[in-house]
Amino acid sequence: MADNTTPTIMKGLEGVYFTETKICKVDGAKGRLWYRGYSIESLAKNSSFEEVSYLILYGSLPNVDALGAFRNKLVSCMALDGKLVDLIKGLNGKMAAMDILRTIVSAMPAFSEKKVFQNENDERIEEAIEIVGRICGIVATIGAVSKNGNYTGPDSTLGVAGNILYMLNGKKPDEKTSRMLDVMMLLHAEHSSNASTFCTIVAGSTLADIYSAITAGICALKGPLHGGADEKALDMMKAIGSPDNTEKYIEEALEGKKKIMGFGHRVYKAYDPRAKVIKAYLEDIQNGSTLEVQTFTAIALRAEKMMVEKLGETKGIWPNVDFFSGPVYTYIGIPKDLFTPLFAASRSPGWCAHMLEYWQDNKLIRPLDYYNGQLDIPYVPIEQRK
Ligand code: CMC
């Protein structure tokens, strides 16, 4: 850019590459996604949240022993210090669950056991594992405290998803429900430089600590254009109320230039492959669930059909990961205000992995903005101003 010319401004940093990575590839045109080279479809079919978290953090799949040890570490970190539980109880009812999560995560170093490490990278990975496990325990406890005021510690015979449900409800989940949450979590575990991951990296690029960086990520995830869309999509299904109202509601919303939450994506201009996996679950839970879940499911499927016909091929607006989550989480027994905190717990391996990768060749992130205001305005003393 030569002096005196207006630079090209990429609003929302659309289309801008800021770093290289080996963690995740999103092919937005074809609707494909890979974690560390493994397709999301193969991971959803064969893997677990724990294994995917290991893969994302370490770069390769674990063997049996490594996975067992990793899972045990995550689960043991889900146990919370009594004072941390008291903090959650103190905030319960005064803030939204996502705001409690943000506050508690920024307080986490106060409850973290500092260990002695051979080298900095070991320390960072251990910190990351602790953060992932801890956030999962915190999210379950925020839900449990809001539900009945009780804290239930993790059960070492269960995995992370099973323990989230156990800590939330105080009773062991059945295998089907537990596996459904497991898959939901692994589908959310990583997604390249989305707003919250970028925000994490921006904070960490100043060489702030990982807790500060992850707290920044949680702040960015909250908004309805990003992770908060899952709660808003369910709000819409509730507002539609009955499946037969779906088409009229969507028609009027689009005529009023409203966005339908859970549709559209900055990168995907094809069907989000994560949404395809979740949609298959909807078809599975349609029968044998509560009337509420059946209603949400029927509305979601009719809304999806209409949106895809109207805006899919023509405008590249397809369902994203947040659209079908609501009916599935409701089926699993997750309350609505825990959807986005659960998204944060699920995404925490991705945030940590990106932070660790970026720190290996850190560069302060400091873009430019183009000033288009006046310059050299004469200063008028306050008593002379009108
Ligand atoms: N419903 C209706 N129209 C839409 C939607 C939607 N959900 N999304 C985009 N559009 C239209 C938009 O109105 C605009 O139309 P026009 O060109 O006629 O003005 C065009 O598509 C481009 O939209 P944009 O908002 O400028 O595109 P973007 O790349 O900045 O937005 C987005 C991406 C995700 C913010 C947007 O699609 C959106 O707001 N979707 C709803 C919120 C949502 O579901 N967010 C979750 C994203 S995926 C999971 C995650 O990352 O958390």
Can you put this structure into words, describing what you see?
This protein is mostly helical and about 375 residues long. The chain has 2 domains: about 210 residues, Citrate Synthase, domain 1 (Orthogonal Bundle); about 100 residues, Orthogonal Bundle (Cytochrome p450-Terp, domain 2). It has 16 helices and 3 strands. A 3-stranded antiparallel β-sheet has the order 1-2-3. A hairpin with a 2-residue loop joins strand 2 and strand 3. The longest helix has 29 residues. The chain is globular, with a radius of gyration of 22 Å. The structure holds carboxymethyl coenzyme *A. Carboxymethyl coenzyme *A (CMC) binds next to loops.
Q: What would a concise description of this structure say?
A:
With 386 residues, this protein is an all-alpha fold. It has two domains: 21-221 and 348-359, Citrate Synthase, domain 1, CATH 1.10.580.10; 229-332, Cytochrome P450-Terp, domain 2 (Cytochrome p450-Terp, domain 2, Orthogonal Bundle), CATH 1.10.230.10.
